[in-house]
Specification:
With 346 residues, this protein is of the alpha/beta class. The protein has 15 helices and 12 strands. Helix 9 runs parallel beside helix 11.
Amino acid sequence: MAESYPTLHQWERGPKIVAIGGGTGLSTMLRGLKKYTRNLTAIVTVADNGGGSGMLRQDLGMPPPGDIRHCMESLANTEPIMEKLLTYRFTEGVLAGQSFGNLILAALNGVTGSFETAVAEMSHVLAITGRVVPVTSADVQLEAVFENGARVVGESQIAACKKEQDCRIHHVALIPDHPRATPAAIAAIGEADLILMGPGSLYTSIIPNLLVEGVAHAVAQADAPKLYICNIMTQDGETEGYTAADHLEALLAHGEPGLVDLCLANTAPVRPGLLEKYRVEDAVPLTVDRERVAAMGLELVERPVASEEGNYARHDPDKLAQAVLDIYRSRAVRIFHGARRYILED
């Protein structure tokens, strides 16, 4: 089926979509969604403490820019040379391992004196579609508590510690707890026509956003449909052995009732060569346990949204965006005796 993109008028008046998360999953989805609506807001975690982002965080005392930068790269409308500059990573000297895009954000943070303002200014420079909003401006660390009682602080240390403890993560928390959300994040959630959570690392990209003061409550209270997008594979060092329902239970345990209405899962097979690659890491295609999801009172939508190319099992940006917009278009919000009802139109 040929792709059908909206006209300029339709694009400008497209639905207000809020996508909550971080990492590669969020930026991949944004790359597809920006073709269908200009009214996009990415609410992004700032709990990362590894790599180049962690270095800037430690040296300059600023929030980690990495996930924010990835989202802006996906939404940017710039010349090819600017795209190359943003993704360029230094290989030698004191800047080895650092990306140029991170350095731009660090410089803007210094010039403006505010990380929120720095992100907004860089968004203008890159002429991005929509907005990218840090979930909080607070200096937060992520702590994981395992089922055996062991604890570890630092997002980049969680996977190794989980393997060492050889047990599931019981919950994660932010230090300090309940940091203040950015006003732009809360406002965007309240104004949204559709709220997306995922795809991405469950405990280190999605859930940290829900631990920021007011975010989970704002999502639960929003009139918009709330859609959780399942990962294609389980994740080494984070969700080995998890099913789709396990992901949803963890999400709800860190949030509150009403956080999710629907769940989107992939049906496309993962290529055999990729299966072998992931099996070495104890990662397998996500099992979609339909009965458990239904028992949670959640609607399950299944679509073939995995990419057929590349060296990783990831979502196809266009297929995922089309599936998300189809779900949005097939539902209408109606107020009936004060209750929200999502009515299927197909």
